[in-house]
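User: My collaborator sent over this chain with a note saying "see what the structure looks like." That's all I know about it. Can you take a look?
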Amino acid sequence: MNIKHGFKTAIRGVGAQKSRSALTILGIVIGITSIILMMSIGRGAEALILNELGALGAEMIVIRPGQEPKGPAEIAETIFADSLKIRDVEALQRKNNVPGIVNIAPVVIVPGSVSYKNETFAPTIFGWSAEFFTDLYGIYPEEGTIFDENDIRQRSSVALIGPKVKEELFGESEAIGQNIKIKDRKFKVVGVLPKRGQVSFVNMDELVIIPYTTAQTYLLGIDYYNEVVVKAASPDAVKQTVYDIEVTLRAMHGITDTDKDDFFVVTQEGITKQVSSIIGALTIFLSSVVAIALVVAGIGVMNIMLVSVTERTREVGLRKAIGATNKDIMMQFLMEAMILTGVGGMIGIVVGAFFSYAASFLLGYYYSNLQWSFTFPISAAILGLVVSTFVGLVFGLYPAVKASKKSPIEALRYE
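Assistant: Without extra context I'll predict from the sequence alone. Here is the result:
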């Protein structure tokens, strides 16, 4: 039997049982759709995260207190760790300790809201250096100016606010020179940032920056920092700068065993590797779940094909009686199984692409501050088609072999 004739015969066999074939195909469609959707969202998430990280610049280094968290439960512990203090920053600023640093600024996270008269808004509040912020992000006030190092030294009550904060508190009124309240302390607005949206996981439009010394002394009553942000001379200098930072801080903290570090250093390269590793591991895990679904669908294909073999016993006997070989019979039923799964795979690719696009659209619509883009991995489409065809080959083989071994005489007698 030539392949063209066998394919036509298989198509007729599949078409003869439309409802049964449709239900069989549905299981494959669900499995392949899951593969496409999973890989598309995974690629989109990875691209989003790497894009956000890229906004920081490869020369950025972040020092955080506490031991490096091994899981989500330990991340909160680093927020309350108190191992980074002013003496550490002063030691890092000395050129003989860390010559690769060109700028450094501590960061203090201030929980709470801001208010003006009867209006209240809950923004992201950082105690930071406004000069470092503008150098880091290249974002300069649209109105007013920034506070400087003198304000930090004098613990001035001044604030740089985002446009959303201005809109919520002042509406169309002038914000510069007005006093907002943070934890019952008045802060004079000196500058308003332009609209910028999400940058490096921070919504710049909902940001309030005050001097970190003011935040420590008057709002939080602490003498430590939540993190210290460092800018290296160049991306090539990051590795050596990280080494010098670690050596300096261990000396300051009297640490000789690196396993007992009470700080950890984060770089763009390190985070990128972690993100890729996490998404890769998550993809493998989800793939195993999808694989189980495809195995179940494959068992369904086998079951349907076995029923079909039984129902078409007389047909098999008749074909053998007029000259069909065991190979011809086996190829016909094997092709039928592969057509079912192949069609399911192609439909699954189309449906998966549609749902992936829909998911990307909805994420972009409801989380407009995220730069989420639709990503359709061609490799996933190829993988989906190969996997679906392979499922048909594997799970269709036993019914095909069983059909080919039927005796023509017994098959013709079958009622």
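A starting point for your reply to your collaborator: The CA atoms of residues 49 and 110 lie 25 Å apart.
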